[in-house]
Amino acid sequence: MYSLTVRDHFMIAHSFNGEIFGPAQHTHGATYVVDVTFRREALDADDLVIDIGLAGAGLKDVLAGLNMRDLDEEPAFSGRNTTTEFLAGVVFERMREAIRAGRLGDSARGVEGMSVTLSESHIAWASFEGRV
């Protein structure tokens, strides 16, 4: 299996509901480093997994919808704890949608699997992985 990874970051504010979250129940900020890995069994006709420029631009576009936002005010997340795990799934779904809509170019149509990893720090991260 071949893979290609692009990286970016975004910053948010949010809070959590539930005693399990302790002081994180109060509004706080987070900066995430985001890695998106695209996988496919065979390279395309240009020997690519995906066009790296379009992949990076697509990730930047997806993250623009989250960056510098208070996620507690976002209707799409109403009633949800916007944990690192949850947000990895959100970024995955939005990237998959971009691939299916053709926004990541023709080579992206051959991508079979993808994983999204959000790193909160150098010692904690969460991922979501699935088929495209």
UniProtKB/TrEMBL annotation:
The keyword Transmembrane helix does not apply. This is 6-carboxy-5,6,7,8-tetrahydropterin synthase. Pfam families: PTPS. Its EC number is 4.1.2.50. Keywords: Lyase, Metal-binding, Zinc. It comes from the Bacteria. Pathway: Purine metabolism; 7-cyano-7-deazaguanine biosynthesis. Coiled coil: none annotated. Transmembrane segments: none annotated. Its cofactor is Zn(2+). It catalyses: 7,8-dihydroneopterin 3'-triphosphate + H2O = 6-carboxy-5,6,7,8-tetrahydropterin + triphosphate + acetaldehyde + 2 H(+). GO terms for molecular function: 6-carboxytetrahydropterin synthase activity; metal ion binding. The keyword Metal-binding applies. SUPFAM superfamilies: Tetrahydrobiopterin biosynthesis enzymes-like. Belongs to the PTPS family. QueD subfamily. InterPro entries: 6-PTP_synth/QueD, 6-PTP_synth/QueD_sf.
